[in-house]
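Table S2 (text version). Query chain:
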Amino acid sequence: MINIKNLQESKSFCSIPFVHQEKHFHNHHNICCYSNKRQSDNVNDNSLQSFNSKKMYYVRHKMLNGEKPEECNDCYYQEENGLVSPRQRETHGWMASQDFTTGLEQNIIKFLNNQEIVPLSYDLRYSNTCTLKCRMCNPYSSSSINAENKKLVNIWSEKFHFVENPRTNHELKIDENIKKIYLAGGEPLIEPYNLSFLKNLAQINPSVRLIISTSLSNLSDDFREVLDKFNNLLIVVSVDGIDRLNNYIRHGSFWPVIIKNLSLVKKHEIMFATTTSMYNVLDIPNIVAYFKENFPQYCHCIFMVNNEEELFVENLPTELRQQCITDLEQTLENAPICALDGLTNLIKTLKINNYDSERFAKFVKYTKILDTARGESIVDIQPKFANYFME
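Corresponding structure-token output:
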């Protein structure tokens, strides 16, 4: 008999490989969105074959035997450095619901009995269509960045690459056994495939745990109408600053529009998600205080950018760190519960002697190129960086 409690406390186990599949618009089937490791090395595998592949067999088998599969090293590395990893957050979240726990347990039992298992949770990416050009994003997640990079590739080819803009209408059997759906992009609230999918889902499984990650810069009447048909919807609003700072980091966004759209979806559960980068690391205390004062009813989580090394918070110069750490530690004392893990991870990361001057130089180069292309200036947004951007 499986002891779920023991698995939750395991140093190797993660719920995701047993229940979840990310379906990318390139027709990739990933284990999760945190490391983008494929479920199968065979690109021709369909969704179910991929979920039950030899690779997934070994990943699951190792986890249940207390071993750490290399596909998940990113999470294990974070934990070794004292951080709270996505593995820990996701497993805790999945086991917080009895219905979810039962589904997980059933899939584990089937796996141990050498039976085929099906995903209970999906991360669906239909396209990279997006109107914003967020500075910590990439062409795989934004068609607007992709278009911009085509113009900048000759300036810095190693950084400003571009891709095709595919759109895939994933075939997915919608039934009441699906526990969780996560929609992202691109911008999920402008993708027509998402709208069609949500209309069908609302008819068959309106109580599914539906999570939509959005900038909330766009909210049409059609999307608003279909969202109101779900009774277990969480809207994760990505905001990385207040007003001008958010507009700068998430180029193309307009703060008053976000605030207006918030009022239109307030009947649903809302969570704010702030991705900390070089652009806003010094402003995190102000951002946390703003949401605590103005939206105390909503959860506010803090994350760190992990896919664009120029923007890693580790790049913060040593002469700015101590005051930043002090400010963050003071914020931690009165921060909302949802923000505690993220703030703690941030503080621990900044306390490590990990500054790299070459990577900081890349941050300056990257920022100058985008500022020139977009007619912006980081000095206007973050004056404390002025000395580093003087010619």
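Notes on Table S2: The chain has a mean pLDDT of 94. Residues 357-374 form the longest helix (18 residues).
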